[in-house]
Amino acid sequence: MSAETLMSVLVGIGLSAACGFRVFAPLLVMSLASRSGHLALSAGFEWIATYPALLALSVATAAEIAGYYIPLVDHLLDLIAGPAAVVAGITAMASSVLGVSPFLRWSLAIIAGGGIAATVQTVTGVARVTSTTTTAGIANPVVSTAEAAGATVFSFLAVAVPLVCLAAILALLTLIWWPGRALLRRLMNLLGLSQQ
Length: 196
Known about the structure:
80% helix, 0% strand, globular
């Protein structure tokens, strides 16, 4: 695997992780980066760099971010965000990976792209449920802001410095995993679902 291919895979992983925070923001960053010549797209994905795609992704990003600040709408968005994040993660990975066969590109897209987007989306969904149950939704705007910031930061890092983005993803998942395990254990004990 060439260095260019490896870097394109890292870009795809970073963008897919960002899709777990917000579905459209990473695709918007991809559109901007490809239009400005900072991101090469795989064959068949040139449409991401077109003006209609840029306009559509801008509107969708703004609507998605705004929707998460509206009570009840944020929960509706959470219901559809899981599958949508997986599709966006697959798209981000497939459109980023260069220099491999279509079979390998789509295998990476489905397994790595969809997998990392689903993982991050699951973590953000748990954070939102925890926020809703512990603060009666008062802290949900803070969670929404953190998610939007995460999508933006990870998207730009993925394009600009993919290795730093990968390190940040691993650090974030590690930071969330340990406290999350303890919280999940307490919740299962509270619900009487723990294994003795």
